[in-house]
UniProtKB/TrEMBL annotation:
Transmembrane segments: none annotated. GO terms for molecular function: hydrolase activity. Keywords: Hydrolase. This is Serine hydrolase family protein. It holds the Pfam family Ser_hydrolase. Gene3D superfamilies: alpha/beta hydrolase. The keyword Cell membrane does not apply. It comes from the Bacteria. InterPro entries: AB_hydrolase_fold (IPR029058), RBBP9/YdeN (IPR010662).
Length: 188
């Protein structure tokens, strides 16, 4: 893959042992990461602007790779800007009403956007994610028009899940890339 990828981490950013960081460091392609002022005090408007700036710079052939709060930021960005991109892998969508959600340190991420995403997407969920139930993730996938993948019990699908470079997730990314290309070719 020599594609362009945009990483949209979750609250606190993704540390060096998170699969997003490992992909950025080791997988082929042009990888970028959004830049925000303060990863520990997340403001939705700031994250949406950061996504939009990066997408405009990278162009429509980019695939967004989002985790946790980053998934909600991508959904808000899509609802506001509706820019065409190649696709999005949305991993561990959090539920703002879940007890573990860091609501004291986030602004503007609720309510979850309820419009179909204007690009191909896959929502990936874990059956024991403390930040969002499998039912919540399935509901988001249905609303957003996303493919839904349940990867079993992997917690929040983050560094604590000990997935290392998460080969299963990277295969999903490759599948998304291939299916997005097929959809573009079919629509010509």
């Amino acid at each position: 893959m020599s594609r362009r990828f945009l990483i949209v981490p979750g609250y606190g950013n993704s540390g060096p042992t998170h699969w997003q960081s490992l992909w950025e460091a080791t997988k082929p392609g042009n990888w970028s990461r959004i830049k925000v002022e303060d990863w520990d005090h997340a403001v939705c408007d700031e994250w949406v602007a950061a996504i939009d700036n990066e997408v405009r710079a990278l162009g429509p052939d980019v695939i967004v790779v989002a985790h946790s709060l980053g998934c909600l930021a991508v959904a808000h960005w899509a609802a506001r800007h509706a820019r065409a991109i190649r696709g999005a892998l949305l991993v561990a969508v959090p539920d703002p009403s879940a007890p573990a959600f860091p609501r004291a340190f986030t602004v503007g991420f609720s309510a979850v956007p309820s419009s179909r995403l204007p690009f191909p997407s896959i929502v990936v969920a874990s059956s024991d994610d403390p930040y969002g139930s499998i039912g919540h993730a399935q509901s988001c996938a249905n609303i957003w028009g996303s493919e839904f993948v349940d990867v079993g019990a992997h917690g929040h699908i983050n560094a604590a899940s000990q997935l290392e470079d998460w080969a299963e997730g990277y295969q999903l990314l490759q599948r998304l890339d291939t299916s997005a290309l097929a959809q573009r070719t079919d629509s010509r």
